[in-house]
Amino acid sequence: MKFHHLFISMTITIFLGACNFTLAEDVTPPPDYVAPSPQPTLGPLYPASAPDISNGEIIYVEKCAPCHGDTGFGDGEQGKQLPVTVAAFALVETAHKASPANWFITVSQGNLERFMPPFDSLNEQQKWDVVSYALTLHTTPEQIELGKSLFAQASNCADCAEKFSNQKMMSALSANDLFRIIRNGQDDIPAFGINFTDDETFAVAAYLRTLTFATILPTPTTVSVISSPQGAETPISAEITPVDGTQVAATPEAVIPGVGDVSGTVQNQTGADLPSDAKVILSGFEHAEDPSVGPQEVITIEGIVNADGTYIFQNVEIPENRIYVAKVEVNGLTYQSDVAVVAAGMTELVLPPIILYATTEDFSALRIDSLQIFFDFASEGSAQIFAVYTITNTGDETVIVNMGDKQVVPFIAFPAGAEALGYEASQDSTPFIPTADGFAMPPSDLPYGLIAFASIPKAKEMVISQPALLPIDSLTLLLPEGVEATGDILIDGGMEAIQTSNFHIYTANGVGKGESFDFVLIGEPQNTAVNPDVTQNKTLLFGVGAFGAALILAGIWMFMRDRKSIEEYDDDENEFDDPESLMDAIIALDDLHRDGKLSDEAYKTRRSELKSTLKRKS
């Protein structure tokens, strides 16, 4: 794999970070680099506390569904755009082979070969929560109830429930492993399911998995709908305005299932009084029937924050799986809650708190934890630089970053002599808050990530001087095979294999504020194709001030598409020796599309490319 292909493949993982649910589609684009040196040592491969399936569902909707699909069939909108098949958790063929520990490792370390990034923004318990939820997607409440009933009938395994509640043991076992234990026994567990059918055995395995959960998925219930007396008053505490602007009839209080209260709090840490007329906006989102469509906003409700910081919306529709998020605008900044997902049977939904902070334009509380610099030599005449910054706001105030007319991030500098191209948020970055002149960074225990793009002229010896406008704790330099670096503070880490290519890795302990990271590049990269200069791609040239995810997503996608289309044009010309082989390719493409293995858009695009190549070959 060529170096620029590696970076583009890492960039594609934008689609896996997906909706972090500002739900103005605050999607987080290209990922922080995953170090090629041995992966950091993971903690125990079992959860410290029983996984919370409800919390896991919220995380899944936010982090996983855009690629793996709402119901886990690998049919998410963003996953369809990837050149590989996305894992379908809801397929028993996939789920029965998976152990929680293996999936925990994948979530922690990522799998770039399948375009999946590591999810560093999740703590260990959150990872176990979402992994455990994913392991329920191939099951049904009826199956679990059947398994529970069969397990209760196993008279020769009266104390087995305690054994199967052992987190350490169960985290290492897949459904297939449990199947074998149920049928054949293991150690001090007797073979209590010898007479079960295969379906019954897997039903018991599904139930045994729930014994490790803090919460168990609800079983189906029959709900009677009680009609409201005609003409009865319908109390409501906030004006409900659907997205399409039509009037919504108010719903009788506490008489219709799927209706209830949505509440939350605003924690004011600004040091000033909350404005008396502070408005809170509640937005509800649902997934469309078409799995290729992301969450759609279905209702917006505007209310007032009470003097004590609380707010409540009464008689709101809260159907199962609806996603709610609230936001408050104070002093030109829009703060929002994390998302909450409605569970079955809920009559009250409490949103995570919205935290307001005092603001400052002083950058001294910002710390650059790491800087990772990638070089792409694919363009003729210039090298592209991708500098990945991991930044933490260690203070107790929101840092306001004004980019000015030139759209420059004032605490990030480009190498001397380089042409600045722009910035993007990195994969799994803590969400930035857009402002009129730039963006804001509230205090956060989790890091922010920025990628700074630049271009620098090629030379036999390239002298690079990277200024540090803030202290940088650690540095990593990645060079394609054939290119070497020299510098006073560089530590040569040797060659490392990443996927199918080798890269020369250099590290440094860091530099202080006002210093520079200096090194010289020599040599020629191996196996590098010539591609158009990224500076010609104007879709990349927008700054962080346009941090609405629609722009970020479109810009990165167009950047990748433009480069990929040129590469594929060249590949098509060389891939097919004659018109007959092209016809075979078109027929194979038709078969894939007919079988539902290729999206309409990808099918039409690729077929058009092949037909154009066929005309040139004929």
The stretches of 5 or more residues where confidence is low (pLDDT under 50) are 1-41, 217-256, 529-573
Q: Assign an overall shape.
A: globular
Assign the structural class, choosing from mainly alpha, mainly beta, alpha/beta, alpha+beta, or little secondary structure. alpha+beta
Largest sheet: 7 strands, mixed
Total individual domains: 4
Determine and state the CATH class of the largest domain: Mainly Beta
Count the DSSP helices: 14
DSSP helix fraction: 25-40%
Strand residue percentage: 25-35%
- Based on CA atoms alone, the radius of gyration comes out at 27 Å
The CATH topology of the largest domain is Immunoglobulin-like
Overall average residue pLDDT = 74
Q: Please name the CATH architecture of the largest domain.
A: Sandwich
User: Distance between the terminal alpha carbons, to the nearest Å?
Assistant: 31 Å
Secondary structure topology:
Elements: H1 3-12, H2 14-17, H3 53-68, H4 92-95, H5 100-109, H6 124-134, H7 141-152, H8 160-163, H9 167-171, H10 175-184, H11 198-210, E1 239-241, E2 259-269, E3 279-287, E4 295-304, E5 310-317, E6 323-330, E7 333-336, E8 340-341, E9 348-350, E10 354-360, E11 366-376, E12 382-393, E13 397-402, E14 419-425, E15 433-434, E16 438-441, E17 448-457, E18 461-467, E19 475-480, E20 483-486, E21 491-498, E22 501-508, E23 516-523, H12 549-575, H13 579-594, H14 600-617
Helix pairs in contact: 3-6, 5-6, 7-11, 10-11, 13-14
Provide structural commentary.
- The protein has 618 residues and is of the alpha+beta class.
- The chain has four domains: 141-210, Orthogonal Bundle (Cytochrome Bc1 Complex, Chain D, domain 2), CATH 1.10.760; 239-359, Immunoglobulins (Immunoglobulin-like, Sandwich), CATH 2.60.40.10; 363-546, Immunoglobulin-like (Sandwich), CATH 2.60.40; 554-617.
- It has 14 helices and 23 strands.
- Strands 2, 5, 9, 10, 13, 15 and 16 form a seven-stranded mixed sheet that branches. A seven-stranded mixed sheet has the order 14-17-12-11-19-22-21, covered by helices on one side.
- Strand 11 and strand 12 form a beta hairpin.
- Helix 3 (53-68) crosses helix 6 (124-134).
- The chain is globular.
- The two termini are 31 Å apart.
- Residues 1-41, 217-256 and 529-573 have low confidence and may be disordered.
